[in-house]
Amino acid sequence: MSSSTVIVSSNYGSSWGTQRVIGTSPGTLGGFDTTRTSQTTYAACAAKVRKATVLGGAYSDFVAFTGANPVCLIVPYYRRNSTTTKQTNAADPDFIVALDTADSGGGTLYFVDGATGTKHDITPAAGVTFANANCITASFGTYIAVFGNKSGATHLYTSFDAGSTWTDRGVITTGKFIRTRRGDSSALRARGQLYVAQNGSMYYSSYWARNGIWIRNQPAGGVQGFDVWG
What is the DSSP letter of 86? Predict the structure, then answer.
């Protein structure tokens, strides 16, 4: 059975450190993220997210998702529920993880406390599952946007309160990628910039999809992924 692995380079890829085995592979997708400046990383394996506290170091069990596999994992810039407490250099950052099916706790989307491993179920709607490694984005520790599969269609969901409540923004076609602008402070003014690659085009909202998402100017069609400057 194949394994999920992590390899770290500290010199821009000129050389690489020891390959670290995370555990049994979760399948074709997984999840991995770190903070901006700390040593801590989270990595997915089958039915678990494991944690390393040193870059290139060994991983140990952190939180289990019995009966399900993580497919996407992100570490927001801010603590859960916070618009003031950054975690860009935290040794125990909170993170959000999406699963391919409901785990033993009944959820498919969790906001996990990085200090305790406590799982907060923030699943946007009953029956939603996830199948994309880039299906979550967050602004501060409060605004969250995801796309997931429900009843055979891909839906875009947004939350303004760290996942306590959600709004279904409708069906999107072949969702590929979702991001916000890292330095965007407009969420503090009840706004929030949101970018979505779907159906080969770039879509955008300056109001966290309150009024839908709309095609933006772009260099070419067939968009599969992107990043946002600033």
Answer: B
Give 38: exposed, middle or buried? Use CB within 10 Å, 0-12, 13-18, 19+: middle
Return the DSSP state at 78.
B
Q: What is the mean pLDDT of the chain?
A: 93
Please state, in angstroms and as integers, the Cα–Cα distance from residue 139 to each residue in 22, 81, 113, 188, 221, following that order.
Answer: 28, 11, 17, 10, 27
How many CA atoms are closer than 13 Å to the CA of 63, on its beta-carbon side?
A: 29
Q: What is the pLDDT of residues 16-72, one digit of tens each?
A: 999 999 999 999 899 999 998 999 999 999 999 999 999 999 999 999 999 999 999
Distance CA 111, CA 98 (A): 9
- CA quadruple 170, 73, 177, 132: dihedral sign: negative
For the stretch 92-141, pLDDT in tens is: 999 999 999 999 999 999 999 999 999 999 999 999 999 999 999 999 99
User: Are the beta carbons of 148 and 190 closer than 8 angstroms?
Assistant: no
192's CB contacts (< 8 A; 6+ apart) are 139, 143, 180, 184, 186, 206, 207, 208
pTM: 0.94
Helix (H) or strand (E) holding 42: strand 41-45
3-state secondary structure of 202: strand
DSSP letters for 191-211: -B-EEEEETTEEEEESBTTTT
Confidence bin at 189 (pLDDT 50/70/90): confident
